[in-house]
Amino acid sequence: MRAEGGIVSSNAQSLASFVWSIAEILRGDFKQSEYGKVILPLVVMRRLDCILEGSKDAVLKASKRLPKGVDDPTKDMILFGAAGSNLKVYNLSAFTFKSLKGQDAGQLHANLLDYVTNFSGNVRDIFLDKFLFTDQIKRLKDGGILWQVFDRFAQVDLHPDRVSNIEMGYLFEDLIRRFSEISNETAGEHFTPREVIRLIVDLLLVNDEAALTGTGIIRTVYDPACGTGGMLAITEERMKALNPKIRVELFGQELNGESFGICKSDMLVTGHDPEQIAFGNTLTNDAHRGKTFHYMLSNPPYGVDWKKYQDPIKEEAETLGKEGRFGAGLPRISDGQLLFLQHMISKMRNDETGSRVGIVMNGSPLFTGGAGSGESEIRRWMLENDWLEAIVALPTDLFYNTGIQTYVWLLTNRKPKARRGKVQLIDASSERFWEAMRRSLGSKRREIPEDARKEIVRIYARMLNGNGQYGEFSKILDVADLGHREIRVERPLRLSFRMTPEHIARLKTEKIFLKLEAAEQGALIACLESKVTQKVYSDRVEFEKALLKALKGTDIKVGPLVKKAILSAFSERDEEAEICRDSHGQPEPDPELRDFELVPLKEDCGSYVAREVAPFVPNAWVDQTYRDEKDGKVGRVGYEINFNRYFYKYVPPRPLNLIDKDLKQLEVEIAGLLNEVAG
After folding, report:
1. How many whole angstroms separate alpha carbon 368 and alpha carbon 331?
2. Against a cut of 0.85, is the pTM above it?
3. Where does residue 84 fall: left (phi above 0), alpha (psi -120 to 50 degrees), or beta otherwise?
4. How far apart are CA 109 and CA 114, in angstroms?
């Protein structure tokens, strides 16, 4: 690949190095984290300039022949045709990079503005609204480096005859990676490590290789939080490696303007339809409404609240129910990851090919929320529909802006027979599956090497389960193993009663008592004080009789609420007291002793209680009114996926003599430091 000015690049890596060298001109005038805002738009612009230069005269002539008052769609159609490119883009400026380079350096800023603003609307929007490129070239002009930067870019030949779409993809990926590495404070917001993406893609495709080969194969890929488009690009790359003839259609949506601009630009320069990448909030405004996809993968934001846009989400959930995207339930307002999962499930294809989904999330969606909560109901809906194939626990410290542990969820609506009713859990968090990086990048201190990635994929593809060398890394479970029925266990209320000055003082603070007229309060207190006694009543019925006797012969009227306040103020919990019973003679439950038991779905509740509850609290009973809203049975159904339950490894504490030795060593070191300070 040969560029103007004699600059030779044998591959995309060396081309990226040359472009990266241009970024060095920005040093001092721009922060390192801002380099990408200048370099990436110029790469896109130069690529488009090389593509459109040959048809420039034809486009300008076609523009002059346009009838007056022609509408924009017709205008675009005519000029796209005149451009003669597969890309839907044109530029009506009289300038090209070559002619701009020949102009007076003092006019470059004005002429470059003319060039940028005369792109077709779909591209102009990227440069002006998403990249804010007019601001960047003004800063270049003010810094006195606009001509230097532009001149270097004009030397790079990015014509498709010299740089293929695949090489452009590699160039873009390499530049994004480099800019992310020097901008660690925000890298993780739009950049997923490539080895993580490749793992997800391999997991999605490993059992589909036969279906992806042959001629006439078309597959659609979608990322609802596509960032800069890395997941889409690598998925296509892997599919093309399996079948060079396959046609891959990429779709996505992104909320961050700059990330969207990068992704849409990448689609442009690599020959895809940029209109299939949408801007906006996926959860509130689905830009691909009604569409379904063969493959979906995403790395949505972790632990980000959705409070500020909760209204349209709640409205959709309430009005559309199961016909909408969020009918299974709504997670807590502080974390919207499960909203993205539901959104992706809603876009599964209902044909024989079906869909496969890969999504990266943190640990919260695995177990947050008890039975009946939004999170548990979402897990229940997903598991009882048998969509979840596997979850892979990844090592910590893989991502640029967080060291937390993450998990890859794999879902499909076309499970093979062997996986039906099953879920595979793979623990790939141990040292076996990662290696330390020679140089940390933000929070990223580890990476998954290729051999480890292949091993994880093999464990998944072969459904290796709990035996042999992979026993500690993989478990195949029934869906029911992940569920439980939450029952409410009650114990009887036992109260003793005393009529003492302390208890009377407690009555004076009761809200119901304070609502009485002052005269009523005084009369009641006077009556009770006259009956003060140290006697302990261990039976509520006996105490109520004593209370009625004390009030007999007075004008004091004690209603049900006041009576309840008196009983509350004069009572103490007492395990030796008689059981309090209701009007039907049934034991009353003690709210403070109430407990909940999680009974595995595969076990009978009665047998569980007889074994786990009755021997320890023989007077306890299961509340028969506490029932599941869906199946109507006693106890609420819940689902959680607890990796520690299946992969916990006991690590014995160190011997005391070794701990004591370390402490003595520390004492010596501290004493030495203190001596240095004192000296």
Report:
1. 9
2. no
3. left
4. 9
CA-to-CA separations, 417 to 163, 309, 367, 422, 439, in angstroms, rounded:
45, 41, 27, 10, 45
Query: Across 205-288, where does the E strand assignment appear?
Result: 218-223, 247-254, 277-279
608 belongs to a structural domain: no
Domain count, the chain: 3
**Token output for 145:** 């480096």
Give the Cα separation of 370 and 640 in Å (integer): 8
Instruction: Please give the Cα distance from 607 to 588 (Å, whole number).
Output: 24
Residues 1-34 as b or e (16 or more Cβ within 10 Å = b) = bebeeeeebeebeebbebbeebbebbeeebeeee
| 337 in the same domain as 412 | yes
Instruction: Clarify whether residues 553 and 422 are in a common domain.
Output: no
Q: Return the amino acid letter for 363.
A: G
Q: Which of 154, 174, 194 is the last residue of a domain?
A: 174
Q: Find out whether 52 and 89 touch, Cβ atoms under 8 Å.
A: yes
223 in any annotated domain? yes
Q: Are residues 367 and 453 in the same domain?
A: yes
Summarised one tens digit per residue, pLDDT across range 348-379 is: 999 999 999 999 999 999 999 999 999 999 99
Same domain, 433 and 477: yes
600, 609 Cβ separation under 8 angstroms: no
Please report whether residue 541 resides in a domain: yes
Bin 329: left if φ > 0, else alpha if -120 < ψ < 50, else beta. left
Main-chain phi, psi angles of 603, to 5 degrees: -110, 145
Whether residue 512 sits in one domain with residue 369: no
Contacts of 462 (CB under 8 A, 6+ apart): none
Task: Give me the pLDDT at residue 10, please.
Answer: 47
Q: Which two tokens stand for residue 421?
A: 């009713």
Nearest to 570 by CA among 544, 548, 590: 544
Residues 276 and 395 in one domain: yes
Domain region containing 341: 186-482
What is the DSSP code string of 7-50?
-B-SSHHHHHHHHHHHHGGGBTTB-GGGHHHHHHHHHHHHHHHH
> Cα–Cα distance between 19 and 40 in angstroms, integer?
10
Identify whether residues 500 and 464 lie together within a single domain: no
- Give the C-alpha separation, 595 to 488, whole Å: 6
Residue 615 resides in a domain: no
Q: What would the pLDDT profile of 305-350 be if each residue is shown by its tens digit?
A: 899 999 999 999 999 999 999 999 999 999 999 999 999 999 999 9
Distance (Å) of CA 377 to CA 5, 38, 251, 371: 63, 46, 29, 7
Residues 456, 530 within the same domain: no
Quote the tokens at residue 346: 């809603």
Residue 652 has which token pair? Answer: 């014995």
In this structure, which amino acid lies at residue 350? N
What size, in residues, is the chain?
679
Rg (CA), the chain: 35
Angle (CA) 258 261 265, round 5°: 145
